[in-house]
């Protein structure tokens, strides 16, 4: 069993601490607002009086704060304790935030692993929870059994920014799905339908269309967007125009759909009529 310190006892930090306690680890906690730590003391955690004391207490320190400025503010209070210590930051941010913190910690002799939590607090320690990691592989290997108690673990590489990048990419997929669902629901309910009754049509359709993603992914990786195309982008641009026109007819704002129409249109206008929809990636990669 290992000793772990946790900084940040919001909903997520508390779930991490409780899971580690349940698994028999020695847990030390520190939170800006001390009263939030007290229920955990009842469950067996030690409360540190300062960030320095918390880092010194354990083999691994986990940060789970609201954002990177908060994480940095806490670490600045404990600079003298950082040399040679293992630090895992599970605070959500951008790849740039993670790389900048990694550089700052390396200058103080700390070993750094960044992580992106693909779960909500009640999922921690249970099936379906995933945490993506990047940064020090040595730290990840040293603490792998502790990390496995929290969630399935995946180390993506030594570049500290990768966990955040993949976290954001997964969230982008999720919000794409949500925006399609919200727009479709607005259309159906505009004619008196019920979103709940529409789901038995929508869910198998989404599943069937998900089956086209391996082919599109292969085209994105190879850049061969014109290979074996069954639904060319010029045809799909017209379908997108029809979605926008139909939405307007129904009094539904086409705001979710207009960007896709514009991007597909850009590819068609630059001569890509016969390409697959995968070619939109070429358009957005070039845009800043
Ligand atoms: P909460 O809002 O519940 O908790 C925020 C924590 O940050 C508290 O411990 C708070 O301390 C601390 N904090 C805020 N500002 C400062 C500061 N300036 N200095 C020191 N501590 C500070 O957030 P969550 O626990 O839900 O989220 C924590 C991280 O986990 C976030 O990065 C979030 O994106 C990520 N995450 C959360 C998920 C969720 O569903 N909850 C899912 C996946 C990731 P205090 O008690 O003193 O206010």
Automatic annotation (TrEMBL):
InterPro entries registered for this protein in UniProt: 6PGD_dom2, 6PGDH_NADP-bd, HIBADH-related, HIBADH-related_NP60_sf, NAD(P)-bd_dom_sf, RedAm-like_C
Domain annotation NADPH-dependent reductive aminase-like C-terminal: ranges: 159-286
Record's signal peptide: none
GO MF terms held by the record: NADP binding; oxidoreductase activity
Name of one Pfam family that matches: NAD_binding_2
Keywords from the named record: Oxidoreductase
Domain 6-phosphogluconate dehydrogenase NADP-binding: 4-152
KW Oxidoreductase (keyword) present: yes
SUPFAM superfamilies: NAD(P)-binding Rossmann-fold domains (SSF51735)
Name of the protein in question: 6-phosphogluconate dehydrogenase NAD-binding protein
Originating species: Sinorhizobium meliloti CCNWSX0020
